[in-house]
Amino acid sequence: MQKKLAYKLIFILGLVGLFAYFAFPLDKRINLGLDLKGGMHLLLKVDTTHLPENARQDATDRALEVIRNRIDAFGVREPSIQRQGSDEIVVQLPGVTDRERAIELIGRTALLEFKLVSSDPEKLKQALADNIPEGYDLLRSQEDNEPILLEKTAVLTGGALSNASVRFDQSSFNRPVVSLEFNPEGAKKFAEITSNNIGKRLAIVLDGKVQSAPRINEAIPSGEAVITGRFDIDQAQDLALVLRIGALPAPMHIEEERTIGPLLGQDSINKGIKASVIGGALVLIFMAGYYLLAGLVADIALTMNFLFILGGLGMLPMIFPGISATLTLPGIAGVALSLGMAVDANVLINERIREELSAGRPIRTAIANGYNKAFSAIFDSNLTTLIAAFLLFQFGTGPIRGFAVTLTIGLLASMFTAIVVTRAVFEWLLGLGLVKSLPMLKIIRETKIDFISKRKIFYALSIIVIGLGLFTFFKKGPDVYGIDFAGGQLQEYSFKSAPSIDSVRQVLQELQIKDASIQQFKEDPRMVMIRTTEDKTQGLTAKLKEKFPDQDVQVLKIERVGPVAGKHLKAKAIKALLWSLAGILIYVSFRFKHFNFACAGVIALLHDVLVALGFLAMTNRQIDLLSVTAFLTIAGYSINDTIVIYDRVRENSRLFRKSSLYELVNLSVNQTLGRTLLTSGVTLLVVLSIFLFGGEVLSNFAFTLLVGFISGVYSTVYIASPLVLAWAGKKGR
Known about the structure:
Elements: H1 2-23, H2 26-29, E1 31-32, H3 34-37, E2 39-46, H4 59-74, E3 80-84, E4 88-94, H5 99-107, E5 112-116, H6 121-128, E6 136-140, E7 147-151, E8 156-157, E9 161-169, E10 175-182, H7 184-196, E11 202-206, E12 209-212, E13 224-227, H8 233-245, E14 252-260, H9 262-291, H10 293-319, E15 326-327, H11 329-358, H12 363-395, H13 398-431, H14 455-476, H15 483-486, E16 488-494, H16 501-510, E17 517-520, E18 527-532, H17 540-547, E19 554-561, H18 563-592, H19 595-618, H20 625-655, H21 661-693, H22 695-726, H23 729-732
Parallel strand pairs: 1-15
Antiparallel strand pairs: 2-4, 2-14, 3-4, 5-8, 5-11, 6-7, 9-10, 10-13, 11-12, 14-19, 16-18, 16-19, 17-18
Helix pairs in contact: 1-10, 1-13, 4-8, 9-10, 9-21, 9-22, 10-11, 10-13, 11-12, 11-13, 11-20, 11-21, 12-13, 12-18, 12-20, 14-19, 18-19, 18-20, 19-20, 19-22, 20-21, 20-22, 21-22
């Protein structure tokens, strides 16, 4: 027995070393998501509507390669560029906050064309009279707004270029210009064009805009040309870059954009760490103070559980090359839920050991029986949530998938540390003779409350609360949704001191932005949020800095979601949630051999999600992707609570065969009430810490969890448990 224990301890220590290796140093092993460290996230859609049928299939792949080359030349560290679906590309640029320059660089088609300008003044007059001659286009020069009549067919395109670079035109006050060099075939063609059209004008057209239209004074055999324009050095360098790399095969549209400034990213990290440290410390202190020695053993498991989550994230790229080790805000939600379930597993075990000791069992037997009796509840609750996490990963979008990955690692770690590690520590202490007794505090005494008899009152209460929430939700209509689902654009700024809202509104009026809503945060009036229905805020940042020169205006975040992307995100979120519920329903039905158990559990789960949804609407908080992540967290925690009671009902049905289902459910709820309140209370310590110290970014998420977890305790006792009887009829009574 001692040799077996020694092997077990060596195995555990080996795992600790392995996971520590992959966890530290954190900045090398685990990447922080853009929502934590700042940067840009773009979802680009390739517009293939005007391409020939046979050219559409590889347009996205060619666009992907062009974008990758542009970003590599731009010098972004560790960018992520991936194809999504048939015509979408996801681009993530850590650390990039010059939004307008990055969008121009990535989204510019860079279709360069050389077109001859009509020298017939009569044709130009005809065109200006809205009667454009066939075979011509009427455009205006970007230099001086001159109307220019061009031949439709280009005589040369950017495909003939071999290089593009920036130089300075000394004759125009050293203004930057883009010098073009043609390949041998292009140089030959350019020489022919210039020699055959001396005296005519040749327009240089970029993405349908005339950059310049110089007159051909002589043949140009050198194979070089120059693009002049009103651009600064950065714009000239970017133009040269995209021309060197080549044009996109089709235009690109931004379906979704999220830009997080470094100030907000660092603030999120600082406040997230502070909230996590405070919440984690409170949990460890409570466990040690309440369960004494058993609590210290649980603390070892909880600390190890956190290490395994970090190490597991660090291992991901090695095990699954397609999945990166990135910690995001939704990932923090997964850590919170897995920590809650890890606490729950340890509480279950300790409460079972307490019951065995109270029954007069020897300490070694009490510990062994405690683990054996707690195992089925721990296994069922964790496996149920793992099934939900798997389905979330399959059907969810990026943030939801990140939540699912972190949750999966956390659940596997919590099962191992609670069941294997703590038992090995107890066996080691028993072997050394260091444990003669196992005292524990007990705040919540055994109760004999008839919870089921008042079920109709609580059914009515729940219906009223959910009804009020849904009424408010539907009354608000689209206003209840954040831009993730409703579409639009949101920009958040930080000022040195609280600005006047009227002054900010005046800036918007000067830019002719009429449909904007402006919000100043009560917690910090230096922060201002501007929301519009579409992207009408080009140049807003520069204008604010100009209007408030002494305010050190900083971009905190910019989010933009197109209406199509918003509908897509909403549909994917609902689909992920419904599939998860279906998975829970099927597993619980199979495991407990009764469909009424599964239905009651899923109804209670939906109850908690709807209560949280209603409270968000009633407190004027908007629903976004982070809210959906909170709903999923609530669902996982709610079903975990419910399964613990179901497991006790199953156990009691074998011990008290003559008792009715009514009596068994009441007995089981009373027996597990202490565990339900303790687990929820301890987990709420973490959530409350996030709510109080996690900052504005996590406030909405933490508030949703607070409401949902409190509702979860209520629904476990007063909704899920009584509903088991609803389908049992008179037999249950």
